[in-house]
């Protein structure tokens, strides 16, 4: 809990004698001869009061009051001069003895008299400034003296050494500020005043004697003050070390800027922003007895985040450009120790957070929006970021949303973001050119495995940074067939012959760790994968396939040489509406001025989009490689339960009238086609919920006819034209007008008047029309680039440019869910002539 104190405290009126001098003033009775001053002395006293007041910022009214009190005998002229010339305001100007003597001479005589200044300086060698004032006034008139007789030298300060100033070097000042140093003093009559904008403020002085015991006059001091008690804005602050001899030393001072801060709580979620026109936003969090965890999610632009401790000291700054997350972490602070050290009561485990703009493209004229989640783990659940506030250890977690609502959720379904122990940057550079090499895939902070074929780049240097930044440690190790060594950031590593595993481990300050892997290959490997497989592919395939081999060693990769240039194929696939994209889903992928090829908004894809999905090198990861899977039936891999996994949750799952999984499995077995492919193709064509009327036999005018694979459902510009064409094919095959089914079409079980006939007959049609013709992968069904003596590009199953990718992804998820993703699949991967050097980008 933050304890707010009164912001400012008025300085005592200058005409009140400061209490610090009471110990060295012998108080006499008021019968000093001042109670009935003569007119000349009174006139002199009035002039002295006016000139003394001019040394400070007292008002004319305050001077009039002081004169009246002198006239009334309540105080003496000397009392007032002592009060002014030993006041904090006067001492804050850094008055030397020479300046003091000159000022005192001007106060008494209205001018500088070198002889009198000399007398005053001589007195200062023997006495305190209080005594020097009294003696100088007495030399003019005894009636001007102080109402008591000052005596003694008083405590004298010397050799003040400031080791740490309380004014922050940062643009903004937050937290408990400290001035540290040492001084020597002849006594204990020493105090410190702290001022904010000229007003006395809460400041806490603690000092101790020389710990060595060699010098009893030496003191070490800590002066502390809490900026939480100050209003936001610019302030002038000063700390003054004063002693009873009337002298003072400014030990700290300057201008500070205290930011306006928003209070956030542990376990909370805040949707907030850095407003347009502002360079930073500040937050304050009391983490009680816990570590500090703050996550920034859903960033609309790059930000820089900084964490400060309860003393306002910068713990660290993180800047993660191009990543939609940022993190701050801080260890629990010993608030009790700080309270003991500073003397400030109510110190809490408080942290300060600064969010500022980062990068070179940040626009000051726009807001930067982000969500702050104050918990170690954060989740994206039910469309919103939430704090993970507890984990019962039994597979359940408690989530909290922005409105403080709590949800008990299974941990596996909570959508916990895997951002702890994560890299924000990874660069592997060639030691000769210093240029970054092309890891496969390109670095993405959630991707943990990478591959690289070293080739001629035998010396590499690795640099990386973690998302947690300053609060984590990174270690890098290289294991070359059992020979392990530790690498430092930027160290040149000479890649040995064969395979090497680079492991990058990120360890958070709370002990959590995670790692990244880079699989390097230089020349042949111990298992001869290079010799037997890689060497058959272009070198630009090496890094990706080497990565896949290490992650899935039982996979088999076979090249297919198309014998055409990539650009030739790209030009053909980008024309005549062969490659379409749904504008409502991917508006930036649509070719400008494209017409609508199929309702509602299927339009031609941009050439760079077609290039991306055509280029095999974009899909060498475990999740994406299945677009190249051979689609024949394999009893060792394919099962009915596997089909059930694929269709789970779809319109075919738990259907009352049909066992779709069994029908699809039998269809695949009879046609020699992967039933997983068939199940995925049905979902692709009919929709996950069976949106197409062809899946229900409910096309108007064609009731009772089914077509689960959209065979013959070529697109037209008429609404529903493709569905009608599919229904026509289900009834009469190609010759709907002639109403005649050929023997071949009869072998496909046409007409398709039942679910089973449509699924099994369609599987036979696919096998005959595609699988048996060599279009035995999803890729070749989408891109007809086979060198089989037929005309290319015209025998393509779908116009959807993403068909092979999205169906392949569905295969992977299905295999993975039944524990089959590591089986010995064979993948046939096309190779083009003159493939582009650059790949992997979508608009």
* Text of the CATH class of the largest domain: Mainly Alpha
Cα-to-Cα separation, first versus last residue: 50 Å
- Helical fraction equals 10-25%
CATH fold group of the largest domain: serine acetyltransferase, domain 1
Q: What is the average of the pLDDT values?
A: 89
Q: Please give the largest β-sheet.
A: 5 strands, mixed
Low-confidence stretches: 1-37
- Major sheet strand order: 11-13-18-15-16
Oligomer classification: single chain
How many discrete structural domains? 6
CATH architecture of the largest domain: Orthogonal Bundle
**How many strands appear in the DSSP assignment?**
36
Task: Describe the 3D structure.
The two termini are 50 Å apart. 24% of the residues lie in helices and 28% in strands. The model is unreliable at 1-37 (pLDDT under 50). The chain is an alpha+beta fold and 843 residues long. The longest helix is centred in the N-terminal third of the chain and has 15 residues, at 39-53. The strands form ten sheets. A five-stranded mixed sheet has the order 11-13-18-15-16, with no helix packed on it. It has six domains: 19-150, serine acetyltransferase, domain 1 (Orthogonal Bundle), CATH 1.10.3130; 157-258, Immunoglobulins (Immunoglobulin-like, Sandwich); 261-374, Jelly Rolls, CATH 2.60.120.380; 376-407, no CATH class; 423-533, Sandwich (Immunoglobulin-like); 552-630 and 777-800 and 819-843, no CATH class. The chain contains 20 helices and 36 strands.
Strand and helix layout:
Layout lengths: L24 E3 L11 H15 L6 H12 L5 H9 L2 H4 L5 H13 L4 H13 L2 H12 L7 E3 L6 E8 L11 E10 L4 E7 L2 E3 L2 E6 L8 E9 L6 E11 L4 E11 L2 E4 L4 E6 L5 E7 L5 E6 L5 E6 L5 E6 L5 E6 L4 H8 L7 E8 L10 E6 L4 E4 L2 E8 L4 E5 L5 E5 L12 E8 L18 E5 L5 E8 L5 E9 L2 E5 L4 E3 L3 E11 L4 E10 L6 H4 L9 H10 L4 E10 H8 L6 E3 L13 E3 L3 E3 L2 H8 L25 H8 L12 H12 L3 H12 L34 H12 L10 H5 L7 H15 L8 H5 L20 H15 L8 E8 L10
Helix pairs in contact: 1-2, 1-3, 1-5, 5-6, 6-7, 13-14, 13-15, 13-20, 14-15, 14-18, 15-20
């Amino acid at each position: 809990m933050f304890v707010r104190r009164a912001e400012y405290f008025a300085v005592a009126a200058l005409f009140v004698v400061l209490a610090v001098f009471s110990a060295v003033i012998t108080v006499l009775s008021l019968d000093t001869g001042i109670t009935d001053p003569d007119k000349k002395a009174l006139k002199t006293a009035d002039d002295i009061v006016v000139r003394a007041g001019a040394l400070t910022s007292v008002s004319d009214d305050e001077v009039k009051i002081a004169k009246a009190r002198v006239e009334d005998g309540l105080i003496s002229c000397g009392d007032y001069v002592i009060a002014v010339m030993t006041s904090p305001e006067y001492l804050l100007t850094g008055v030397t003895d020479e300046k003091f003597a000159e000022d005192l001479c001007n106060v008494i005589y209205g001018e500088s008299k070198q002889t009198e200044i000399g007398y005053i300086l001589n007195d200062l060698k023997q006495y305190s400034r209080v005594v020097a004032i009294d003696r100088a006034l007495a030399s003019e008139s005894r009636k001007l003296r102080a109402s008591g007789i000052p005596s003694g030298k008083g405590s004298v300060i010397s050799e003040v050494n400031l080791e740490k100033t309380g004014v922050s070097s940062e643009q903004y000042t937050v937290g408990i500020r400290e001035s540290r140093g040492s001084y020597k003093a002849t006594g204990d009559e020493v105090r410190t005043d702290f001022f904010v904008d000229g007003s006395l403020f809460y400041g806490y002085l603690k000092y101790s004697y020389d710990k060595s015991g060699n010098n009893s006059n030496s003191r070490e001091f800590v002066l502390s003050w809490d900026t939480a008690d100050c209003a936001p804005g610019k302030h002038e602050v000063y700390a003054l070390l004063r002693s009873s001899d009337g002298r003072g030393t400014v030990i700290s001072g300057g201008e500070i800027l205290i930011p306006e801060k928003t209070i956030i709580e542990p376990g909370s979620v805040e949707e907030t922003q850095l407003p347009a026109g502002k360079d930073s936003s500040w937050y304050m969090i009391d983490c009680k007895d816990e570590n500090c965890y703050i996550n920034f999610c859903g960033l609309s632009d790059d930000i820089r985040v900084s964490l400060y401790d309860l003393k306002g000291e910068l713990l660290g700054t993180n800047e993660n450009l191009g990543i939609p997350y940022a993190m701050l972490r801080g260890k629990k602070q010993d608030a009790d120790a700080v309270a003991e050290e500073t003397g400030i009561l109510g110190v809490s485990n408080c942290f300060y957070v600064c969010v500022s703009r980062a990068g070179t493209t940040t626009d000051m004229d726009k807001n930067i929006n982000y969500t702050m989640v104050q918990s170690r783990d954060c989740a994206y659940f039910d469309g919103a970021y939430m704090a993970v506030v507890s984990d019962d250890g039994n597979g359940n977690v408690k989530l909290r949303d922005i409105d403080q609502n709590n949800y008990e959720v299974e941990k596996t379904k909570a959508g916990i973001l895997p951002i702890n122990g994560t890299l924000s940057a990874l660069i592997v550079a060639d030691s000769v050119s210093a240029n970054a090499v092309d890891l496969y895939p390109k670095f993405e902070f959630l991707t943990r495995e990478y591959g690289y074929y070293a080739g001629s780049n035998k010396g590499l240097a690795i640099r990386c940074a973690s998302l947690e930044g300053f609060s984590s440690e990174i270690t890098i190790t290289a294991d070359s067939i059992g020979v392990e060594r530790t690498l430092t950031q930027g160290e040149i590593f000479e890649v040995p012959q064969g395979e090497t595993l680079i492991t990058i481990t990120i360890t958070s300050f709370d002990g959590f760790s995670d790692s990244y892997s880079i699989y390097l290959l230089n020349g042949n490997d111990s298992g001869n994968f290079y010799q037997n497989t890689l060497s058959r592919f272009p070198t630009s395939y090496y890094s990706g396939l080497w990565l896949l081999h290490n992650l899935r060693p039982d996979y088999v990769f076979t090249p297919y040489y198309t014998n055409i240039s990539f650009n030739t194929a790209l030009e053909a696939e980008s024309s005549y509406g062969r490659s379409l994209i749904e504008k409502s889903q991917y508006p930036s992928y649509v070719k400008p001025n494209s017409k609508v090829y199929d309702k509602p908004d299927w339009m031609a894809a941009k050439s760079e989009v077609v290039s991306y999905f055509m280029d095999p090198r974009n899909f060498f990861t475990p999740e994406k490689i299945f677009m190249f899977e051979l689609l024949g039936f394999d009893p060792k891999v394919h099962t009915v339960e596997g089909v059930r996994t694929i269709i789970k949750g779809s319109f075919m799952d738990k259907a009352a009238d049909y066992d779709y999984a069994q029908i699809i499995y039998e269809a695949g077995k009879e046609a020699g086609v992967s039933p997983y492919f068939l199940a995925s193709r049905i979902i692709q064509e009919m929709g996950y919920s069976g949106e197409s009327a062809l899946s229900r036999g409910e096309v108007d005018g064609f009731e009772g006819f089914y077509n689960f694979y959209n065979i013959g459902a070529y697109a037209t510009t008429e609404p529903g034209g493709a569905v009608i064409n599919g229904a026509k094919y289900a009834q009469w095959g190609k010759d709907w007008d002639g109403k005649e089914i050929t023997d071949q079409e009869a072998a496909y079980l046409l007409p398709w008047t039942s679910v089973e006939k449509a699924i099994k007959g369609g599987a036979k049609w696919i096998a005959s029309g595609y699988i048996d013709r060599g279009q035995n992968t999803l890729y070749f069904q989408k891109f007809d680039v086979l060198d089989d003596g037929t005309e290319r590009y015209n025998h393509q199953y779908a116009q959807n440019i993403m068909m092979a990718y999205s169906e392949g992804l569905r295969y992977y998820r299905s295999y993975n869910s039944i524990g089959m993703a590591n089986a010995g699949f064979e993948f046939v991967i096309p190779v083009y002539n003159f493939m582009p050097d650059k790949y992997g980008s979508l608009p």
